[in-house]
Amino acid sequence: MATLTEELNEWLDEGRERVARLPLEPRVEQIGRVLQVGDGVATVQGLPETRLDELLIFEGGFMGLAVDLGEDAIGCVLLGGASAIPSGSIVHGTGEVARVPVGEALLGRIVDALGVPLDGGGPLETASFAPVEQPAPAIVDRSLVTRPLATGLLVIDAMIPLGRGQRELIIGDRSTGKTAIAVDTIVNQRTSDVICIYAAVGQKASSVVQVIEAVRRYGAPERCLFVIGEANAPPGLQWLTPYAACSMAEYFVERGRDVLLVIDDLTKHAAAYRQLSLLLRRPPGREAYPGDIFYIHARLLERAAKLSPGRGGGSLTALPIAETQAGNISAYIPTNLISITDGQIYLDPRLFYEDQKPAVDVGKSVSRVGGKTQAPVLKALSESLRLEYAQFLELEVFTRFGTMVDERTRKVIEHGRRIRAALAQRQFEPLPLGEEVALLCALGDGVLDSLPLDRVAAFREALGPWLREKMPEIPALNDEAPPLPDETRARLKHALAALAHSLAAPKGEGP
Prior knowledge:
CATH topology of the largest domain: Rossmann fold
CATH class of the largest domain: Alpha Beta
CATH architecture of the largest domain: 3-Layer(aba) Sandwich
CATH superfamily of the largest domain: P-loop containing nucleotide triphosphate hydrolases
Number of helices: 15
Oligomer: single chain
Distance between the termini: 104 Å
Shape: elongated
Helix content: 25-40%
Number of domains: 3
Number of strands: 16
């Protein structure tokens, strides 16, 4: 018994010594109370020193952002735990803005807008954090967009080319293949050095899983990051998701890397922000959106840029996705996004239902930057393609009425049909640059005009192995390759003609 008492006294003496060594100093702690809470927002009383976009901590460790600073109360967007925060509970101010983890450890992971892992792969081993909201690079810190970003989709690379550092909107009705184009672009980066980040905003869990599994199966998941704000996530997290993904991307950009950021989609992002704004009793404007709806997207997409050599020379390419209703691209949110971005890829439902995939409407699609960065070898072969295709689409309308056409018109129409067949691609099968060059050469030199229309798909499938055997220098082309010399193009035409003849001949006959 005496021994136990002695040990207890020693433990108490040690505790007193430790307490005596602690510095005694006053500390100010900002404390407020919850007035109202519900539907993903909360009203807080107190905290007079709170700043805009400051991170607040609620009871239970749940976080929120101060987005409305009133004279008597603060409007907060909750980032989780709305049902577990009672009215009257205590709120602590942090004096800090929302930050997310950044670094190499994020690659290959699935996280939410706060950087919390969602893939069951354990905690993130990263020591760096970056603010969710950051200013866009200044004009003097930007450089010209000089390198192409290959999508592997012939219709885009040939007629609507993208550059590294560009902002290109993918727009169209529901279920027309918008996400498919973005995923194919991510998959095509498996042969490049581009880091890919996919930000899902308001998407169903099943749709997100399909994207992740497709990238893991066909792409390079070790260089990809998925930032997820699902449809059942709090609206505050959905709103924060694209900004968090952009901050994670900027870590690599500042170190001279090239990054592709896909935001799927900004229409749902705008809807989540409208919901939060109405709950916070902000004045509604057109279509009930708040007055700063243009600004929230502009400040996000302006962060995509090609940095100057003094800033490392990295680039952030943004592919935001927007959904239209009944093809109305003049609606409020689509109009805003078209005016912010450097061009748009419009997907036509009619083409999609006619099984022309990707269903890109070449007439309504444009790239205001990428044409200057297009690979020289590809640009030399695609200069007249868009005009020829547009002429074909115009003439085809007249033939649907059974109008008699002359021989010259018939040849234009048949040539156009082969262009359309060559532009069709299956998902997850992006074309390397060499095969795109060969296909454009076959179209430009009329090699496919003698091939039956139903054999064009077979020609495209056989093209890769044929080139590797007959002309291995064509698959070895890169985006810096100059236009093909006349002698090389003549040999390529001969090889393509031999392939077309072998496919057009009856079974058993060779070229």
